[in-house]
Design brief:
By secondary structure, the protein is α/β, with parallel strands linked by helices. Helices cover about 20% and strands about 20% of the residues. β18 and β19 form a beta hairpin. α11 packs antiparallel against α12 and α11 runs antiparallel to α15.
């Protein structure tokens, strides 16, 4: 550790105004405020490069005044935007009591709006003594090495209107599309992985925020029918040490280092060279461009844990400021962290200070960056009080009622790994939720069940699929008042970043995660996939080549079920073009072509893309396919029930038929605002004769058939007399196929 220079005495904050956490530029300098309730003192460390210094950095320290209600604060004249800085916290080193103050460690300001540099993961980044293999006793002595040259530095960003620079000309919040939930189609994407291989983009824009907002990417999204892009984490993050030791990286970004700073490596080289303000401008410009095209931007946010890891983890920010306040502890002695996220560093949402941090971050990204909503990773953790999960938790109530978040889309991942962690359907309005039961039901019906049937094993009944197709009222109907949330609360998905891609679901029955360096032990074993008889890719000259068309039909069945079901569909980037991860179902550490979207489209991939576009167009054209209310079965204006189920003979389903284990074919008749659609599903391995249903004379037009490789096949189709048939006439559905008829 370099000898500490005497700290400049504090200048009290501006009189009469409570200090704002973080560093804020004023006309004559900055105002600084840091939450560290149990610290004895906190220094603001102003940093400048100095090759002659032992650490390579000249450091001027300013002692902050306080604490006042746990906050240290000061006014510091002469500091300008672009200044590097960090924090050093002084206090007792008593890890057995949860106190880990070590002023040798430069800390990242939790409210930093820009960061420069990366964590180097060496021993100096740990608060306790570790060896070169990073092993040590977390209850042992404090490490004396100075970390200033081994950790990122916060940067002062002038956020005052008219001061930041070119980005002030763009207000991304001013042109928000505010797309209704009933019209929403979500596209989950990785900023880097989506565009890194796009041949039409200039090389310097690939894999960047600017690439995301490029007209070619936006046109792809618009043609696909996407209305909202949900971005994997763009908060600043750091890779875990065990990945770095293996030569891998945290590609997904679920390892947050700062809740306000954008992840700088996703910016163009020019923006990075210009500094954090330019990085922020690039993010804002991308959001603005997407808004201009009518596309919303949702952020996947990780407030449940940080990158500092478990008890033996690094000493980078929150741990050094006040581990006992920020992190969830088990209440024992010696103090140990409680882990309900599987990361070892769960933030404690029983603490008002943690709730405030998350809300301040949300407001910043909503108001100053202009994003349109948030997907909350492991959201059950954010609603955990002293008695476990509470749907009336202060954070959930605050997010639902905060004026800065009004009208934005709030989406919960409704589980964590702690006790009672599965809470799908139990979040309050206006939250929507990822529907894992939809994923499991659709995969089981179209893939796992036929695989079992091919071996003579029993299959699931159709009733669970029917529940998912109609909006999952069993999960999301329990509100106050009942049914108020509607099917929009169900974020329907078949794939996501975590798990197999759509193409891999039909080509692999087992995960192939060897590249992750964990001997294939990581990743889920509950994939409900089906390789159709052969594991992995099948060449054109293979004796098993006749399986390939069946795989492609299964992809179309999954895609159609997703896009035609009641609820809010979420596509995973690249699935519309047959992206493969070669059987890896946990590619979180694969920043390689294994994870990047390929834009080189073989003919079958072009056909799949055309199919996806056709299905989203069908959804847009028919209110019956995107209702915002749960079906009730009661008659509407024209006397027809809004939802009726028919069996293959055209008869209305009875209670007994729903429990018929041999029945794998059903018809779903949906009526909304006089728009009438019939979805016919054959989940059997055999062709099925179906009497097209309706209780009144109806002329049905076949709008789509999953046996079609390309939607244009409708023009030459000869389906039992043509594309038009009357209700009561017979149609033959191919094995494992789905049709859509419109009246």
């Amino acid at each position: 550790m370099s000898p500490p220079s005497p700290a400049t005495p504090p200048t009290p904050p501006t009189h009469g105004r409570p200090p704002r956490l973080g560093v804020h530029v004023t006309d004559d300098g900055v105002e600084v405020a840091v939450l560290a309730p149990h610290a004895d003192a906190v220094d603001l460390c102003l940093l400048d490069p100095d090759p002659g210094a032992p650490t390579g950095w000249a450091e001027r320290r300013v002692r902050l005044a306080g604490p006042e209600l746990g906050v240290f604060a000061a006014r510091v004249p002469g500091v300008r935007a672009g200044q590097r800085y960090g924090l050093r916290a002084h206090g007792p080193w008593k890890p057995e009591s949860g106190l880990r103050y070590n002023p040798a460690k430069l800390l990242v300001d939790p409210y930093a709006y820009g960061l420069l540099g990366e964590v180097d993961h060496g021993p100096a980044t740990y608060g306790h003594v570790v060896d070169d293999a990073l092993a040590g006793d977390p209850y042992g002595p404090a490490d004396p090495r100075d970390s200033v040259a081994h950790v990122p530095h916060a940067v002062v960003v002038d956020r005052r209107p008219g001061h930041r620079g070119a980005g002030d000309a763009v207000d991304p919040a001013a042109n928000r599309p505010y797309t209704p939930w009933s019209d929403t189609v979500v596209y989950e994407a990785h900023v880097r992985g989506l565009t890194l291989r796009h041949p039409g983009l200039p090389a310097h824009l690939r894999g960047t925020y600017a690439g995301l907002g490029h007209p070619l990417v936006i046109e792809h999204l618009r043609a696909l029918g996407v209305t909202a892009v949900e971005l994997l984490p763009v908060h600043a993050f750091s890779s875990e040490p065990h990945l770095v030791q293996k030569g891998l990286t945290n590609y997904w970004g679920y390892s947050t280092l700062g809740f306000f700073a954008p992840h700088a490596p996703y910016a163009t080289a020019a923006a990075r060279a210009a500094g954090p303000a330019a990085v922020l401008d690039e993010v804002r410009a991308a959001v603005h461009a997407l808004h201009e095209a009518g596309i919303e931007v949702l952020l996947d946010v990780v407030y449940n844990h940080t990158c500092e890891g478990g008890m033996g983890g690094q000493h980078l920010s929150w741990r050094g400021l006040d581990s006992g306040v920020y992190y969830l502890h088990d209440g024992g002695h010696p103090a140990a962290l409680a882990d309900v996220t599987g990361t070892g560093s769960t933030l404690d949402f029983r603490r008002p200070e943690v709730v405030r941090l998350a809300l301040d971050s949300l407001r910043y990204w909503a108001q100053e960056v202009g994003v349109d909503g948030f997907r909350f990773d492991l959201a059950v953790t954010l609603g955990r009080g002293h008695g476990g999960f509470d749907p009336d938790h202060p954070f959930l109530v605050a997010a639902a009622t905060d004026p800065a978040l009004h009208g934005l889309k709030l989406v919960a991942e409704p589980w964590d790994v702690g006790p009672g962690g599965w809470r799908t359907g139990q979040f309050p309005m206006p939250f929507a939720e990822w529907n894992d039961k939809f994923r499991n039901s659709v995969r089981s019906f179209w893939l796992a069940d036929p695989a079992r049937a091919a071996h003579g094993l029993p299959e699931h009944r159709v009733r669970d699929l029917a529940t998912r197709l109609s909006g999952s009222v069993d999960l999301f109907g329990h509100s106050d008042p009942p049914l108020a949330r509607g099917p929009r609360a169900s974020i329907n998905y078949v794939t996501a970043h975590d798990g197999f891609t759509l193409a891999d679901l039909v080509a692999y029955e087992h995960k192939h995660n060897e590249a992750n360096g964990e001997h294939n032990r990581d990743g889920s074993d509950d994939n409900r996939s089906w390789n159709h008889g052969v594991e992995g890719p099948i060449g054109a000259d293979s004796v098993a080549s006749d399986i390939v068309p069946l795989r492609r039909r299964s992809i179309r069945n999954l895609l159609a079920t997703l896009l035609l079901a009641a609820g809010t569909p979420m596509l995973t980037a690249g699935d519309e073009m047959g992206r493969t991860q070669r059987g890896n179902n946990n590619a979180y550490c694969q920043d390689t072509d294994l994870s990047w979207v390929s834009w080189e489209l073989a003919p079958w991939r072009q056909d799949l893309l055309a199919t996806a576009r056709h299905l989203t167009a069908l959804r847009r054209a028919h209110p019956a396919l995107r209702t915002d209310r749960f079906f009730t079965g009661r008659p509407g204006e024209d006397g027809r029930p809004d939802l009726t189920w028919f069996d293959p003979s055209g008869a209305v389903f009875t209670h007994e038929r729903w429990h018929d284990a041999d029945l794998r074919t059903l018809q779903m008749l949906r009526v909304v605002d006089r728009d009438t659609v019939l979805v016919v599903v054959n989940g059997s391995l055999d062709p099925m004769d179906v009497v097209l249903a309706d209780d009144r004379p109806t002329r049905w037009e076949l709008a789509w058939d999953s046996t079609w490789e390309h939607p244009d096949e409708a023009h030459g189709a000869d389906v039992n007399g043509g594309l038009h048939q009357d209700a009561g006439t017979r149609a033959v559905l191919e094995p494992l196929s789905l049709r859509v008829y419109v009246a």
